[in-house]
UniProtKB/TrEMBL annotation, chain A:
<dbReference type="GO" id="GO:0005886">
    <property type="term" value="C:plasma membrane"/>
</dbReference>
<keyword id="KW-0472">Membrane</keyword>
<dbReference type="GO" id="GO:0016887">
    <property type="term" value="F:ATP hydrolysis activity"/>
</dbReference>
<dbReference type="Pfam" id="PF00005">
    <property type="entry name" value="ABC_tran"/>
</dbReference>
<keyword id="KW-0067">ATP-binding</keyword>
<keyword id="KW-1003">Cell membrane</keyword>
<feature type="domain" description="ABC transporter">
    <location>
        <begin position="4"/>
        <end position="252"/>
    </location>
</feature>
<dbReference type="GO" id="GO:0005524">
    <property type="term" value="F:ATP binding"/>
</dbReference>
<keyword id="KW-0813">Transport</keyword>
From TrEMBL, chain B:
<feature type="transmembrane region" description="Helical">
    <location>
        <begin position="146"/>
        <end position="166"/>
    </location>
</feature>
<keyword id="KW-0812">Transmembrane</keyword>
<dbReference type="GO" id="GO:0005886">
    <property type="term" value="C:plasma membrane"/>
</dbReference>
<dbReference type="Pfam" id="PF00528">
    <property type="entry name" value="BPD_transp_1"/>
</dbReference>
<keyword id="KW-1003">Cell membrane</keyword>
<keyword id="KW-0472">Membrane</keyword>
<dbReference type="InterPro" id="IPR045621">
    <property type="entry name" value="BPD_transp_1_N"/>
</dbReference>
<feature type="transmembrane region" description="Helical">
    <location>
        <begin position="7"/>
        <end position="32"/>
    </location>
</feature>
<dbReference type="InterPro" id="IPR000515">
    <property type="entry name" value="MetI-like"/>
</dbReference>
Length: 289, 336
């Protein structure tokens, strides 16, 4: 039994027929790291938002199930659902510069979930925050806890957000392009850190990214998304040795090679885009969405 | 240290501002037609009478000379005597100031409560019919100026449904045990709630008239910045932690969204104090504004100068206070 299981999830713009997600199904087992790959606009972030209940007001879920630990989130009343998400899931956001509240100190921003939602005592929560900050290799934990976000660097803030995500020992963490907004030199450290913490805590991780290089390093399995349709669902070795879908093959071929830094960039060929679009259209006709 | 420096700088510019205000007012009220001496003398007074009285008040000297005499008096805390009542200007003005301050602060509180409630409700129920109703109400409140609201309130709650007092500051038959002119504050401190209620009931209508347009401005701006803040990543992150929408609005969005509103409230509060001049007249409220109108009608030059200077001091003081509060609330400015 998977910890998270999404079945035939469809979403569209409110009051319009524009589909954003098309019968998406995917599983994340306890402790598994699954990559969610696709170009911008493919709907990969929308899946994360649908799980966490933070979809924009303009988007509505038009069908399917999101089953978290045996409970269908979409049938829960919103207050119950919020509490369940708060207790079992966490988000590592994309942009560390905007994901911390500028008018509050770091300490309370890490401990607030533990104290307010999970009912920990303040001192326990603070001890926990200190331990986690040390775990994400922040030296001066006392000073950092008392700092305001603007006093810290972007890499430092992303470490804090990672620590904060792991603070309540969630069963599932959704990492929404956690390194995209960072400096290339910092990206690698942050990736290593997420992978290390994931392994140590045994947390399941849904890793949303457009970077196949990242996926190959961190994930065990992946789903490839195009226009809200899952084109391929493979384990990492299978995907990198024998991708099933033509779009996946083109995507792999388009990944820049570090061994050939002067080589020109290969885009996904137009013909492949055409056939993939046709596949999406055919899916829409057969599913009557 | 930097903080002290910037406060000192502000105080210096404040004095320059006050000097400029004094200079302009002094000259303008002497250049416009109308003569205080002519207002004082009975019909049939001789040229000699006029000249004698003019000399008595020092109005025969050149305007720059008069200004220097007045300024040297002000430096020693002497703002001259009122021409109509013969009392010292400073004493007159300070006796009326508490009434106006209490009225303005009460209006500000009403505006913050109404405007804040509107903004928070509108944000919590965004996209609903309630939000649309709040927007329409705000638009109406904004498009009618405070003195018109005053007239509307007098007609509605003073004439058609006489619920509130619409004239004066306190019921004249009541015995007042007060030693200052801060009636409302002192009634509360002396635990005389009977008096407090009477005074508050007198103040409520003029305060509401002053508050309505400001409430609309606060409501509109705060709702706007709240709605923008609600889209930011840290608010979304707080939602995923399990917090309710209301908690997210009050604890995550509000502390950040309130900053632009605060600056605006400071500016608008000075307009509100300016509005007391007409509103006090409308409600026969014994404040500084009412006194200002009488002073202008009687061409009471020293009194006009004194009142204008006091208004200018209040304006600059409020602006200074807003800047300090802003720095206190915004951690990014505190150390800068």
């Amino acid at each position: 039994m998977s910890f998270l299981s999404i079945r035939n999830l469809s979403a569209r713009l409110k009051g319009r027929s524009d589909q954003i997600l098309r019968h998406v199904s995917l599983e994340v087992a306890a402790g598994e790291v699954r990559g969610l790959v696709g170009e911008s606009g493919a709907g990969k972030s929308m899946i994360g938002k649908a799980i966490l209940g933070t979809l924009p007001h303009s988007v509505e879920i038009s069908g399917g199930e999101i089953i978290l630990d045996g409970i269908d989130l979409l049938t829960l009343p919103s207050a119950k659902r919020r509490q369940l998400i708060g207790a079992k899931c966490a988000l590592i956001p994309q942009d560390p510069l905007t994901a911390l509240n500028p008018s509050r100190r770091i300490g309370p921003q890490i401990t607030n979930r533990l104290v307010d939602i999970l009912g920990w005592s303040r001192s326990d929560a603070e001890a926990r925050a200190r331990a986690l900050l040390a775990e994400v290799q922040i030296q001066d934990t006392e000073r950092v806890m008392r700092s305001y976000p603007h006093e810290l660097s972007g890499g430092m803030r992303q470490r804090i957000l990672i620590a904060s995500a792991f603070a309540a020992e969630p069963k599932l963490i959704i990492a929404d392009e956690p390194t995209t907004a960072l400096d290339v030199t910092v990206q690698k450290q942050i990736l290593k850190l997420i992978a290390a913490l994931q392994a140590r805590h045994g947390t399941a991780l849904l890793f949303v990214t457009h970077d196949l290089g990242v996926v190959s390093k961190v994930c065990q399995s992946l789903s490839v998304l195009y226009a809200g349709l899952v084109l391929e669902d493979s384990t990492i070795p299978d995907f990198f040795h024998a991708p099933k879908h033509p779009y996946s093959r083109a995507l792999l071929a388009a990944t820049p090679k570090y061994t050939d830094p002067d080589g020109s960039l290969t885009p996904v060929p137009d013909a492949i885009i055409e056939t993939t679009r046709a596949e999406v259209a055919a899916f829409d006709r057969s599913a009557h969405v | 240290m930097l903080f002290l420096q910037s406060v000192t700088l502000r105080l210096c510019t404040t004095f320059i501002t006050l000097f400029g205000v004094a200079l302009i007012v002094f000259f303008v009220i002497r250049v416009v037609p109308g003569n205080p001496i002519a207002m004082m003398l009975p019909p049939g007074a001789t040229e000699a009478d006029v000249a004698r009285l003019t000399a008595l008040y020092g109005l025969d000297k050149s305007i720059p000379q008069q200004f220097l005499i007045w300024l040297s008096g002000v430096m020693q805390g002497d703002f001259g005597n009122s021409i109509t009542t013969k009392q010292p200007v400073l004493q007159l003005v300070l006796s009326r100031l508490p009434a106006t301050l209490e009225l303005s602060v009460m209006a500000l509180c009403i505006a913050i409560v109404i405007g804040g409630t509107m903004a928070l409700t509108g944000t919590r129920l965004r996209g609903s019919k309630t939000e649309a109703a709040i927007d329409i109400g705000n638009g109406m409140a904004l498009s009618v100026p405070d003195f018109l609201w005053g007239l509307i309130l007098i007609l509605t709650f003073g004439v058609l449904m006489p619920v509130f007092h619409i004239s004066g500051r306190v019921t004249p038959s009541l015995a007042l045990p007060f030693s200052t002119n801060f009636y409302l504050t002192e009634a509360a401190l002396r635990l005389r709630f009977d008096l407090w209620l009477d005074i508050a009931a007198h103040m409520f209508m003029p305060a509401l008239a002053l508050a309505i347009p400001l409430a609309a401005i606060i409501g509109q701006l705060l709702k706007q910045s709240l709605k923008e803040t609600m889209h930011l990543d840290y608010v979304t992150l707080a939602r995923t932690k399990g917090y309710s929408e209301t908690h997210v609005i009050l604890h995550e969005a509000l502390p950040n969204a309130i900053l632009p509103t605060l600056t605006l409230v400071g500016v608008q509060f000075t307009f509100l104090i300016g509005g007391t001049v007409i509103i006090e007249r409308l409600f026969s409220y014994e404040g500084l504004g009412n006194m200002a109108i009488d002073a202008v009608i009687n061409r009471d030059l020293p009194l006009i100068q004194g009142i204008v200077i006091l208004f200018a001091v209040i304006f600059t003081g409020v602006n200074l206070l807003v800047d300090l509060t802003y720095a206190a609330l915004n951690p990014r400015l505190r150390h800068a």
